[in-house]
């Protein structure tokens, strides 16, 4: 068993990005653009033979391009760029060829008119081939008609990486709902594709370690089933069936296939925390003994393998780490950690390495993600690039993992970030509430919103209230039907804990959050007006009933199955729990909110449509004159464009300064 980690550890190719000086200078607070511009560097992939490195790079005011670094020659070549879009996701098809899609980073979701498309190119820039149409237009040219349709996408899995072929998925929809997902085997040289036989109602696919389709999940009503393509018979057979929406205790989540064909899964086997087990296809059962089990957390992570060997497993507790089964990798991790002692360092290996290069991604609470190559033979580390090169770690606030007791005794995890310098006492506090809510909110590490607030002098508390996942079934289930009730109390109890610890000034506490966090912000102002002096809600739910009954012309993207089977159990039944839902509706309680409030919504949001914000704003401004309102018309559920992120957080900075800033 792995013990829970409670002590987090507190950067060749200068061709790509300039290095950041480690010497901190006394200066005003970092510019807002340093936090909320697009990441300058956030993706690098070794070729299967580890002789090449594919990277996505910017070009000043131009579009992001795909480049390949020859590690033997120490040279870089831009191999692909699009005139009206940026390079999106990319993968190696084999040692000589790559596949990639596109994204328009200058356009918000509401203004986008093109799909990602799909393209292939050789590592020297030759033999470019468009494979998928980027336009959903009904009228197509003869050239576009020969392409696969726009709703064809990368699987997100590496595949075999040893031929001209990749697998792509093609979702199909009926009445606006996902009905099934086809899998196609696509030749990236000639563009020809053939479908793969599948069960009905297929929702997702998993490739085995040889890059061939082996597992599918299906959904029929609320019944989720896993099916296995048996190599002995060539036929699909059902392995298991679960309740798709309410956390079936016998459910298992496939992680990946190992090189020997072993299927690794995450499951809690009726217990409280999920752990890593293996699945026996002969007996159709899970192993009794866990391979990786974490004391205080559900397992979350991924296998680390070569094409021939299982090396280790990346996992997440409060921060990310790796358990290595391979002795050479243990030694390599130790060597890297000696070179980078103040960061978490995650190593990625190539499938069939012919060189000693491995990729290292490093980060800490004060250090945004940075990428480097490590040479296992020479022991040298060569930096590739920084995600946020303008951020100076010496100016960032330190972050601690905390736990406090809710009023009913439940243990509530959370993260506390304090401003850089000072005593850490009697500070203005922002309680930052995560969305979901049935997700894990955050993990130890640098985040732009948290660190921006800390850079402006605020302590930031991020509670993992009941209902949050990742902390076991009991913590998750304690949040069922507790919107505005015990879940809300957990958040308030976090603020009270910070006061009791001497961290927070009780007269200067603001609550803020997006999506469910926006809902919790509004209900925090309703339930605890003496505690929270102001609130910031962006893209927040304002009425639970609206999640069930929203107007047809502003249909939410919440699936009908979730509304029918999940929401009544986890949130509340619109008929049986009508009185509770009314009592915990910010819209119904709008007149009780008298504190200053900042509201921001996306005009193209399909998760929490704009009418949530409009209805609430119309109601609250009748009795509260101190409400600010902003709509980003082209944005969806969150802000995708730097200009809007910068505008929004500039508003947040001014709002907080007015209401809980310097006394």
Please give a quick description of this structure.
With 663 residues, the chain is an alpha+beta fold. Helices cover 17% and strands 32% of the residues.
Describe the structure.
The protein has an 8-stranded mixed beta sheet with strand order 28-29-31-30-32-33-34-35, sandwiched between helices. A 4-stranded antiparallel beta sheet has the order 1-2-3-4, with no helix packed on it. Strands 5-6-7-8 form a 4-stranded antiparallel beta sheet, with no helix packed on it. It is α+β, with helices and mostly antiparallel strands. It is globular, with a radius of gyration of 25 Å. Helix content is 17%, strand content 32%. Helix 7 links the parallel strand 32 and strand 33 (534-538).
Biggest pleated-sheet summary: 8 strands, mixed
Number of strands: 35
Percentage beta strand: 25-35%
Our count of helices gives: 12
On the 0 to 100 scale, the average pLDDT is 91
For the record, give the distance between the C-alpha atoms at the N and C termini, rounded to a whole number: 49 Å
Rg is 25 Å
Shape: globular
- The strand order across the widest sheet is 28-29-31-30-32-33-34-35
Keywords:
single chain, 663 residues, alpha+beta, eight-stranded mixed β-sheet, four-stranded antiparallel β-sheet, 32% strand, globular, disordered N terminus
